[in-house]
Amino acid sequence: MPLSLAAYVTAVDTDGGAMVLLDERTGKYRQLNPTGALVLRLLLRGATTEDAAAALAERYPQAGARAGEDVARLVEALRRAGLLRD
User: Fold this and answer.
1) The predicted structure's pLDDT at residue 54
2) By three-state DSSP, how is residue 9 classified?
3) 74 phi/psi in degrees, rounded to 5
4) Neighbours of 54 (CB within 10 A)
5) What is the Cα–Cα distance from 41 to 51, expressed in whole angstroms?
6) Mind telling me which InterPro entries this protein's record contains (predicted)?
7) Residue 1: per-residue pLDDT
8) Mean pLDDT for all residues in the chain
C-alpha cells in the first residue's frame, strides 16, 4: 500500500527542488532537502521504498550502497513525526 501524508499535513515545493511540510496540528514546519523531497515524491506517487532507493542510487551513484538505509531513515523520521500514514 502506498504511503500518503497525514490529512493535517500540507506539502509545498520550494525553489531548487526542496519541499516544506506543515503539520497543521502543531504549526511546525519541516524542510526536506532536494534529495529527501525526491524520495518523498516518489513514495507518494506509489513507489516502494526499494524503488525509491534504486532511483536515488541511479541519480546519485555515490549514494549507492546506503540509498536503502537513507530512504528507510527518512520514512521512519516522517512516521515518528506523525506526518505519514500507510
Assistant:
1) 95
2) strand
3) -60, -50
4) 16
5) 12
6) PQQD, PqqD_sf
7) 63
8) 94
